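Feature request, filed as a ticket because there's no other form

It would be nice if the structure record came with a short human-readable summary line next to the tokens. Right now we just get the raw output. Example of a typical job, pasted below so the devs can see what we mean:
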Amino acid sequence: MIAGLLGAFGAAVCYGVGSILQAVAARRTQSVEGLDPRLLIRLFGSWRYLLGIGFDGFAFLLSIAALRSLPLFVVQSIVASFLAVTAVLGAIFLHMPLRRSDWIALLLVIAGLVLVGLSAAEDRSVTVSEAERWGVLVAAVALGVLAVPLGRIDGARGAAALGALAGLAYGAVAVAARVLPGSVRLDTLLSDLGTLLTDPSIYALILAGGVALLAYSTALQRGSVTQATAPLVIGETVAPALVGVLMLGDRPRPGWGYVAALGFVLAVVGALRLSRHGDLTQPDLQRTT
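Raw output as currently delivered:
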């Protein structure tokens, strides 16, 4: 369980670093109409974006490892704290000083994560039906279809809509990782490849990850980092946590339910408040060139 907690915190740090790099790269790349996959092709020409994706990829592996031993609500609330990392890095490298309200929000995140960590119990083995595995894939496909009309919305409304969809897609990635066959581990990934290729949840994970990446990158071009990231945090934290509790049997330690709920709320509220700090202004972007 300790290794799982360390993995989740490591994922939050990597996601925080990656978000700064991707935001700068997205703002400096020619914008697109609608949800255009060519945006990713352009972004792949930016070393900042590639480095940010590299941090995200490592964070993803850490979060999968954490999900093999911890409930979804624990991992997702810890991962949501990447906004705290983003805020601190923004203050250091992008000349966006933290205000008093930002420090209060940062303390809320830390307090919430401490409570969630204290309430965490070792993940229990839960039998997942074939229908539930296919259900995750159907949800990923539905999000991909929904992304097309949402991609036509311009401005702040478009940024918020695509950010929310990206959050739900990242949440679907977390759920898919949670329901992978229990015998699959990172250290035996190659030997278990045959098992993975016959499981619909692995395809849900890949599809939802691609949808999330494109939707969030587009959202960063439509509006501020705040408008894109705040709904993302809600989608990727609350939705999979509810799925874990209602369908996958995730539970805190006996008698610690209220502590877990309080910690979860504090962490999400603090992260949302910190997301207001994430706006990158044009002078900030010029200084990073």
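Something like this underneath would help us a lot:
Residues 280-289 have pLDDT under 50 and may be disordered.
DSSP finds 13 helices and no strands in the chain.
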